Amino acid sequence: xxxxxxxxxxxxxxxxxxxxxxxxxxxxxxxxxxxxxxxxxxxxxxxxxxxxxxxxxxxxxxxxxxxxxxxxxxxxxxxxxxxxxxxxxxxxxxxxxxxxxxxxxxxxxxxxxxxxxxxxxxxxxxxxxxxxxxxxxxxxxxxxxxxxxxxxxxxxxxxxxxxxxxxxxxxxxxxxxx
Length: 178
Ligand SMILES: Cc1cc2nc3c(=O)[nH]c(=O)nc-3n(C[C@H](O)[C@H](O)[C@H](O)COP(=O)(O)O)c2cc1C
Fold this sequence. Notes:
- The protein is α+β, with helices and mostly antiparallel strands.
- Helix content is about 35%, strand content about 15%.
- The chain has a 4-stranded antiparallel β-sheet, sandwiched between helices.
- Helix 2 packs across helix 4.
- The longest helix has 19 residues, at about 100-120.
- Flavin mononucleotide (FMN) binds near residues 67, 68, 127 and 147.
């Protein structure tokens, strides 16, 4: 892959919230989650867990757990990403911020978003209320809810254009220390 290919992928990714009704296959979802697993993680601890909600009724139930995601019912799949916070540094010598377990899960989520774009699918991150999701999915105590990703097939006319990102000026967010 060239820099230009990757740039196009990044430009094509955008949050898609409404999808075609045709469901995703389990193989497509597993392919995406295999990409997620390639993400970096602190000490390669791979603290992520992926809870894939295909069932429409369950997605309806989860609506109340979303901060702003009243559209997740229409997605082909909804993946709740959790973090196993019980994991400990392997060596005991490295001191890392405990939040780095969660950061690792975020990097896996980014792979899902970019991977979905590369597969011609749409996706969007959905913020979740930790407690209600925990109850709804009966998660083990050690798992923290990091966030949700809805994934689905693009509706006709929603093909990526590479445009439409409103972003701050680069010079306003970059500092060089020469
Ligand atoms: C941590 C995080 C939480 C987000 N939560 C939501 C959400 O709850 N609902 C939603 O529709 N979009 C959510 N988004 C998507 C953002 O609204 C979106 O990325 C942003 O507006 C930029 O648009 P783009 O993704 O199309 O570039 C979230 C994105 C991130 C990274």
